[in-house]
Hints:
By secondary structure, the protein is α+β, with helices and mostly antiparallel strands. It has helices at about 15-25, 30-35, 45-50, 85-100, 125-130, 135-140, 145-150, 185-205, 230, 235-250, 250-270, 275-290, 330-340, 345-365, 370-385, 390-405, 410-415; strands at about 60-70, 75-80, 105, 110-120, 155-165, 170-180, 205-215, 220-225, 300, 310-315. The two termini are about 40 Å apart. About 40% of the residues are buried. This is 3-hydroxy-3-methylglutaryl coenzyme A reductase.
Amino acid sequence: xxxxxxxxxxxxxxxxxxxxxGNFANLSEDELITLENMNGGISFDKADKMIENAxxxxxxxxxxxxxxxxxxxxxxxxxxxxEPSVIAAASKGAxxxxxxxxxxxxxxxxxxxxxxxxxNTDANIAIKKINEQTNEILKLANSKSNTLSKMNKGAKxxxxxxxxxxxxxxxxxxxxIDVGDAMGANVTNTMCEAVxxxxxxxxxxxxxxxxxxxxxxxxxxxxxxxxxKESVGGEAVxxxxxxxxxxxxxxxxxxxxxNKGIMNGIISVANAVGQxxxxxxxxxxxxxxxxxxxxxxxxxxxxxxxxxxxxxxxxLSVGIVGGIANVHPVAKICAKILNVExxxxxxxxxxxxxxxxxxxxxxxxxxxxIQKGHMRLHARNLAAAAGATPEQIDPIVEKMVQANSxxxxxxxxxxxQI
Length: 418
């Protein structure tokens, strides 16, 4: 198995980085050329077919996080994000988690929830009738996807609930659909629209909205990692991290920023492999408020040996078939680098990345502060941009930090002095 613990990857040239990733993921020469030459990954002609009123394309940086061991498998994790320090933080978090065996992650089966809004009906009577004809409704829904039916997946269950609104009560009929390795939005919407006339006939009501819910509580993912107390910085630092977590868990203003850091990791991976980042964000934020109060998505504690224990549990709807992941050339290469075999495995990697990112962020906040490391990384990038060799970068960074002058001009000045 390849090893994702790659020493000083950030110091290597782009050519060397591509060579390392090419070897790790067994990329072809054409795939390496695509990564090297296609800024943004798609032509305007392709973009014009993806959205309306297209006028161009928009690129973001693509990098990789190293050191990840998840369920005893090594991963190099592609991440697309414009914010500095995120990829470094995820790599550092994974490196510390690796000492105690890495991340243990479990994921539910890929069940999507479709909702059909029924108006002008007696909910109690309607629910009884729907329950009596469940098999007929499921059969009709499954007739809309031969692929899922052949895989023994598809619509599995019907649930009903009545909700009260200012306009009166409404009946909500929900389809629970096993969508396999797809994200499942299209097939869920198709099934909801297909069965709504039958449900209207059964209930005597009128169907209005027929659409999936992005609140994917039947696709939960739970990641856990132990961070060795000595590597964290000692038990006092462990205690401070727990105090930082308790702040986030009990104050909404802190919780929003705390959870944003988690999503820095998760959404960066989502962007790289062509997932619906808006759906992921919406579901995570809804889940953060499941108790009735917006709280931390992660939980931090210590074990009997004083080590730091982190847990992150979120609803996460992702897929490895269909959607942009199958048409965007760079997203396809990123999926190959990640080398996941199921939607559940992808969800596990994304959740572990969020936990790694969260660890690094709250450790920095509870020790030296977030800005010191952030600016040091920025200084390193500026030194490289100025033309410094790997051997020259660290001395230039130290001098910029000491002078509290971090700019490209300062980096060039220090390089000239060297």
